[in-house]
């Protein structure tokens, strides 16, 4: 594996400031009044779980199935944990959509 390939596998754990900024961005996103259809509601639930995960700095995947009521919510919760571990970027976490 060459050095550029290795860079793709590096995990960069977000700083507390980056996590707090991500929390602010998620709060702004779920504050949107456009939660009429079920898919958008499921995504909003996932981002509410993400807020909980980020605030508590949780890394326990085992709790997700009990708290998430839908597949989109579970997926977002997993992304939040992966973000805290440095395994996905903030952009990936925030990119989940109903589209």
Describe this structure in words.
Helices cover 64% and strands 0% of the residues. With 99 residues, the chain is mainly alpha-helical. The protein has one domain. The termini are far apart.
Mean pLDDT: 86
Rg for CA atoms: 14 Å
Shape: globular
> What structural class do helix, strand and pairing data support?
mainly alpha
Through-space gap between termini: 36 Å
Number of strands: 0
Reading the helices and strands in chain order gives HHHHHH
Beta fraction of the residues? under 5%
Summarize the amount of helix as a percent range: 55-70%
Largest sheet: none
Write down the domain tally.
1
Unreliable sequence segments? none
Number of helices: 6
Key terms:
single chain, 64% helix, mainly alpha, 99 residues, 6 helices
Brief digest:
It is built from 6 helices and no strands. The chain has 99 residues and is an all-alpha fold. The chain has one domain (16-94).
Topology:
Elements: H1 3-8, H2 16-30, H3 38-56, H4 64-67, H5 71-84, H6 90-94
Helix pairs in contact: 2-3, 3-5
């Amino acid at each position: 594996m060459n050095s550029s390939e290795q860079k793709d596998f590096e995990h960069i754990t977000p700083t507390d400031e980056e996590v707090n900024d991500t929390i602010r961005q998620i709060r702004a996103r779920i504050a949107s009044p456009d939660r009429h259809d079920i898919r958008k509601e499921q995504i909003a639930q996932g981002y509410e779980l993400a807020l909980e995960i980020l605030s508590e700095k949780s890394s326990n995947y085992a709790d997700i199935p009990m708290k998430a009521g839908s597949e989109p919510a579970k997926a977002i919760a997993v992304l939040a944990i992966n973000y805290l571990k440095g395994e996905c970027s903030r952009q990936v976490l925030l990119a989940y959509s109903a589209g």
